[in-house]
Amino acid sequence: MSPSRYQKQMLFAGVGLDGQQRLAGSHVLLVGCGALGCVVADTLVRAGVGRIRIVDRDFVELSNLQRQILFDEQDVAEHLPKVIAAERRLRCVNSEIAIEPIVADVDWSNICQFTEGVSLILDGTDNFEIRYLINDVSLHAGIPWIFTGCTGSVGQVMPVFPHDSACLRCLMPTPPPLGSTETCDTAGVLGPAVNVVASFQAALALKILTGHAHEVARKLTIIDVWSDSFRQVDVSKLRATSQCPACFQGERLWLHGSQKSSSTILCGRNAVQVTPPEKLTLSLPDIANRLLAVGEVVLNPFLVRVIVSESYGEHSLEITIFPDGRAIIRGTDDPALARILYSRYMGT
Q1: pLDDT tens for residues 285-307?
Q2: Active site residue: 38, 184, 244, 247, which one?
């Protein structure tokens, strides 16, 4: 650890030398490297968190650049997975930090592996299914996590301390029904809202990692940067009053795989992710060769992308395939059509 790098941060009474050393010894899991994840990863790497494991399933697109601060146009041109592009940038920011990028779809079969050795889990996702999975593994492993979301100009943050504070299911027993809440498809998202909310999340993370978890308020914080409003809801008594089945009965519906889907509509993308029932190990060059008859193919070490020559409705189709068999089908938000196309072009 280079003290001069963190001098200004160590002058702050809440950190000091002891806190900085705690940060250097910390290991964090960041699930999702989109808008929120970019800000959080950048902040924690600059702050000197010793090891950060970043898991994301997606690749960089032009529409990301409006708010996802770790990426640039070259990353778009190279069709890079987000975690690979993020690692490149973050290593230039702080070469002292151990950064572990993982291109994967977080699900019930692998999340326990990703949480091994970590002291804090950070939510950089854009869907509730993964958040409920994080909540399950947090309670199972006793690892705190910070729930965070942002849509339009509004963001919300809530820290979860297993078996001590309210968990996500205490707050919302079940995920919101499909179509019942605003998404970035329907409401858009402002870059400043992302930055404010993610910075609030990062500040809570630093507070926890420097040994001040007991000082973190058990509150749900809601920030609207457009209406200039800041509101906090006290959830300190919610765990005791909710009798949440996850907290009190050990129910782990998402972690045990009983609550899962094989297709996921991707926020703001006109795209659907299709996941095979079991993870595969594909040869990307073989897949690329097979798809040459389908349309224009781009191959890199991380994925194969094909722009399908055949038209489906108003939109052209792009199919991006990862080595584990997962595919992102862009040009439709219909999960049924996405699964049909997956079967048609992947043969499964």
Answers
A1: 998 988 888 889 999 999 999 99
A2: 184
